[in-house]
Description:
Residues 6-122 form the Response regulatory domain. By secondary structure, this protein is of the alpha/beta class.
Amino acid sequence: MGQNIRVLIADDHQVYREGLKSIIHRFPGITVSGEAGTGSEAVSFVRDQQPGVVLMDIIMPGMNGIEAARIIRQEFPKTSVIAVSRFTDRIHVIDMIHAGAMGYLSKGCTKKELLDAIYSVSQNIPYYSTEVALILNQLTGHRNFQVNKDGHESGLFTRNELRVIELICQQKTAKEIAETLCLGVRTIEGYRKRIEEKMGVRNTAGIVVYAIRKKIFLLPPE
């Protein structure tokens, strides 16, 4: 890495913070710039120091990690939030994505996952641990997404682009999307490139997370 990534650790357990800090100090190009024990402390630190990445616990006293992530992403969109939690269920994952989290790790993640996640989100590329990625696959792979007609974000995309986004979220390949829309594969690839440029993402995971986070498509109820 050519730049130094400054990380804030936000967790209400001091022992866990110390453990993360000792691990991160061994990563090249990454430094721990501060710690926070509550969501409010995390928001205050970001306002003062503006770190590049925040490792955010979800359940904390007072303001929780979901609300803290929402405030941070609204006020400082260049600061990326990674949820680090023992809760990896559908509700917490989706709530953190809606709040603007660019990554999600379980507290049992490996050192490599932690390193990869920090490097990834610092480049605006979403990162999710294997078990969280499986949840997203289950949500998108076998569901019909509903266009959020009231969402202002939908206005950034044409009707065809929204349809392509929907099919990408359903894990369709470029060939399958082309067949569904009766278009050529190269045309679909062109749509995909424009979609990624508008979203500011680089891959399928980025498209899916953006669509869910910005509520372009709504997950139907269970």
